[in-house]
Amino acid sequence: MAKITTDYITLQQFLKLENIASSGGEAKILVSQLDIAVNGEKENRRGRKLYPGDEIVISGKRYTVEK
Question: Cα–Cα distance between 67 and 52 in angstroms, integer?
Answer without folding.
Answer: 6
